[in-house]
Amino acid sequence: MTRPPTAAQRRVIEAADPVTGRLRGTEAQLAQLVRRGLAFRHPRPPHDHFLTPTGHRVRETVEEAPAQPAAPATEVFAAHIGGTEEPAATGPARVREVHSAWQGLLELRRMTNPDGATDRPCGWERGHLVQAAALALEAAGHPPEAGGVPGYRVRATPQPEAVAVHAQDAGALRACAITLESAGWQTGEYTEPRTRARYLLASPRRV
Fold first, then answer.
1. DSSP reduced 3-state for 96
2. How confident is the model at residue 52 (pLDDT cuts 50, 70, 90)?
3. What is the pLDDT of residue 136?
4. FRET label pair with 186: which of 39, 98, 109, 160, CA 20 to 30 Å apart?
5. CA 148 to CA 97: how far, in whole Å?
6. Exposure pattern of 77-115 as b/e (b: 16+ CB <10 Å)?
7. d(CA 135, CA 124)
8. Omega of the bond prior to 46 within 30 degrees of 0, cis?
9. Three-state SS at 175
């Protein structure tokens, strides 16, 4: 079982920036948080430390009930792809998780694209098309379809490097297209032959 943070570690976590998760503390405290998966050290100077999505969840626990043990640091962030029967997670904690994940993805683009570009997808996104497209949509504030609430759905397709994006109406579909294009994807609108429903076919832009 994962041990809860010490009192000193809880104070460091609680004092983190509420949006970016930037941390202040001694090198020993920050190193301990990194080892426990609650923080990461930015690879670029000045090598600041930031909360991971799990660290943000622990921070929420610290704020609401400081005396209670923190949740185990085992969950991995996943963007909402839509189409679930259960309501999608919302609220300040989720907003911070999505913001942190999107900023991390932009940093990954900068570090792995040959020219350091952040305006087009990187190799990781090409290998995780559904999650990458869903993260771009969720980070821009689009609601996923979940629990009876209309929204977007992102699904894999037989075509290489392409996902299908569905939305409740033409306006929402066009808004999704604008968001994806601004995030470095190319999109086209098509009609499903059987249902006649309109959908987007989206692919990561290469140049």
1. helix
2. confident
3. 97
4. 98
5. 23
6. bebbbbeeeeebeeeebbbbbbebbbebbeebbeeebee
7. 13
8. yes
9. helix
Parallel, antiparallel, or unpaired for β 153-156 and 163-166?
Answer: antiparallel
Rg (the chain; Cα; Å): 19
**What per-residue string of b and e applies to 141-157 under the rule 16 or more CB within 10 Å gives b?**
ebbbbbeeeebbbbbee
Tokens for 72?
């185990």
Closest-CA residue to 40 (of 20, 60, 64, 62): 20
Place of tokens 């004092």: 15
Half-sphere exposure of 10 (CA within 13 A, CB side): 17
Average pLDDT over the chain, rounded to whole? 86
Residue of 101, 8, 92 whose CA lies nearest to 50? 101
pLDDT in tens, 13-29: 888 877 677 898 888 88
Structure tokens at 172: 């929402």
